ADP-ribose pyrophosphatase (Candidatus Enterococcus dunnyi), 380 residues
Amino acid sequence: MMNFEDFEEKTISRNEIFKGHIIEVVVDDVQLPDGGTGKRELVFHPGAVAVIPITEDNKMIMVKQYRKPLEKVTLEIPAGKIDPGEQNNPKETAERELEEETGYRANKFSFVNSMYVSPGFANELLHIYFAEQLEKVPNPRPLDDDEVIELYTLTLAEAKAEIASGLICDAKTIFAVQYWELQQLKEDKR
Amino acid sequence: MMNFEDFEEKTISRNEIFKGHIIEVVVDDVQLPDGGTGKRELVFHPGAVAVIPITEDNKMIMVKQYRKPLEKVTLEIPAGKIDPGEQNNPKETAERELEEETGYRANKFSFVNSMYVSPGFANELLHIYFAEQLEKVPNPRPLDDDEVIELYTLTLAEAKAEIASGLICDAKTIFAVQYWELQQLKEDKR
């Protein structure tokens, strides 16, 4: 078994390319473990949260929205990036996003997993929560200015059909539908 | 129900920031559906493939490697980005990556899903395959020059334990383990 030193790519120098509102881009010259050198193009991202909201009649709430990088409309679970100052409490961000995007708050809010979405070039860490026992918030916090969304509720069969149709096409939502299916199968087995 | 035009964010102008070997970065000024304007920081990526390889004794093959964006060692399913010229045949890329990283070829190679890994800022599309009936390739194609990896085979229980430990920490591998668990549960029910 190899040790950390056998893998580590030490930074020789860093070239800062771009510092935007959301992402930062750098190119590192690195020392490879075998003594050679290489270049690594890296995107730094503040992290994000996503919520799997399940209604009392066992449907998943999803959000239709435009995704500029894809130039298409997608159906996804509610999600958003972590704002400065929220770094230490992703659950709070997740509760805020759920309220802003759906108008619901959850009386049962459980942590599912944290996952790096694309570890080859980005450090974005996504925290996923499962939200149940939903209730409408009387005066929910408003959406961000530049967000245009439409809400849908889907049964498991409908969600799987929208994965097949391609309207659901992002990793976190496909993961969420699979997670939900797995929970239901496990409950059936009890 | 709203139409495509109710969501679309038209590009007013594009500022090209960086064209690297792997990613391209641009900032678009966009026209929002409500008439306002906004900025979108976008990363273009050639796409990637990942393989869920299951051995004859029902273990998943994973790769230990250093991930520079995270500055840590991770355990992941075999994966790699799509090279120029392979855009139309991700399955070929997946078979190549499996052979390069593990030395195996699969007699049963099934498509699982294609998913955008981070649709808020990146257009990276990841194609996932399930590989069974593995056999050792006598003289497998070599790794890329800058790749240092170590192979592991894990049972489902071991894989779930490494998710809990944090060594398995990326979205595609957590998805893969969950997918594998779901397949096994479905088979048990038959």
Summary: The longest strand of chain B covers residues 104-116. The first helix of chain B runs from residue 4 to 7.
